UniProtKB/TrEMBL annotation:
<dbReference type="Pfam" id="PF03669">
    <property type="entry name" value="ASTER"/>
</dbReference>
<feature type="region of interest" description="Disordered">
    <location>
        <begin position="1"/>
        <end position="29"/>
    </location>
</feature>
<feature type="transmembrane region" description="Helical">
    <location>
        <begin position="39"/>
        <end position="68"/>
    </location>
</feature>
<dbReference type="InterPro" id="IPR005351">
    <property type="entry name" value="ASTER"/>
</dbReference>
<feature type="transmembrane region" description="Helical">
    <location>
        <begin position="80"/>
        <end position="96"/>
    </location>
</feature>
<dbReference type="GO" id="GO:0045048">
    <property type="term" value="P:protein insertion into ER membrane"/>
</dbReference>
<dbReference type="GO" id="GO:0005789">
    <property type="term" value="C:endoplasmic reticulum membrane"/>
</dbReference>
<comment type="similarity">
    <text>Belongs to the Asterix family.</text>
</comment>
<keyword id="KW-0472">Membrane</keyword>
<keyword id="KW-0812">Transmembrane</keyword>
<protein>
    <submittedName>
        <fullName>Protein Asterix</fullName>
    </submittedName>
</protein>
<dbReference type="GO" id="GO:0044183">
    <property type="term" value="F:protein folding chaperone"/>
</dbReference>
<keyword id="KW-1133">Transmembrane helix</keyword>
Length: 108
C-alpha cells in the first residue's frame, strides 16, 4: 500500500516574509543592550574615578567591553570608544592612586 499522493495542499502554503524596517529608530525589535551597557559603563567609570573604587572601575571596563562587542556597525563608534577609554582610564587612575591589590567590597 504505497501512496504517491502528497497530502499537503499547495494553496495553503504561506512563505515567511520578514517585516520591513521603515528606517525608524526605537522600533520594537531594536536591541537596547549596547546602549544600556554603555550608560552603565560611564556611570561606573565616574564612580571609580571620583570615589576611587577599583571594583567600580573594573565593572565599568566589563560593561564597556559588552557594549563594544554587541554594538552594530551602524552605531556611533565615537561614543562606544569614548566609554571604553573612560573605563580604561578609571582602572589605570585607580591603580595609580593606590597600587595595592583590590579588596572585595564585602570584605571592608
Amino acid at each position: 500500500m504505497s501512496y504517491s499522493v502528497d497530502p499537503r495542499r499547495k494553496e495553503k502554503i504561506n512563505r515567511y516574509k520578514a517585516p520591513k524596517n521603515q528606517g525608524q529608530s526605537g522600533g520594537a525589535n531594536e536591541d537596547m543592550m549596547p546602549d544600556y551597557m554603555n550608560i552603565l559603563g560611564m556611570i561606573f567609570s565616574m564612580c571609580g574615578l571620583m570615589m576611587k573604587l577599583k571594583w567600580c572601575a573594573w565593572f565599568a571596563l566589563y560593561c564597556s567591553c559588552i557594549s563594544f562587542s554587541s554594538s552594530r556597525a551602524s552605531d556611533d563608534a565615537k561614543q562606544v570608544l569614548s566609554s571604553f577609554m573612560l573605563s580604561v582610564s578609571a582602572v589605570v587612575m585607580s591603580y595609580l592612586q593606590n597600587p595595592a591589590a583590590m579588596t572585595p567590597p564585602w570584605a571592608s
